[in-house]
Amino acid sequence: MFQKIPSIHVTELAELKGPIIVDVRENHEFQAGHIPRAKNIPLVKIASYEPQGKIYLICATGMRSKRAAKILLKKGYEVINVRGGMSQWQGAIKGGAK
């Protein structure tokens, strides 16, 4: 049975007040530039992550975060995939330059 992955676009994420954001890119990608309040949990480690409350998953384009969302949804967590990813993020960046 297929489960629809809840998702929003990066522009919608930028409008939210204080969302919990998990960046599933590799550590070197995260260090090169990320959303200031994001936590880095690479996709290869996401299966062992136990989030508290609703989380928003982001990566470079939205593909890895969608895979992470599927994994966490199967475990019963409330997750939202962020379409467009960091490649379309226009907000503040911490780390590298954009």
Automatic annotation (TrEMBL):
InterPro entries: GlpE_sulfurtransferase (IPR050229), Rhodanese-like_dom (IPR001763), Rhodanese-like_dom_sf (IPR036873). Transmembrane segments: none annotated. It holds the Pfam family Rhodanese. Signal peptide: none annotated. CDD domains: RHOD. Residues 15-98 form the Rhodanese domain. Coiled coil: none annotated. This is Rhodanese domain-containing protein.
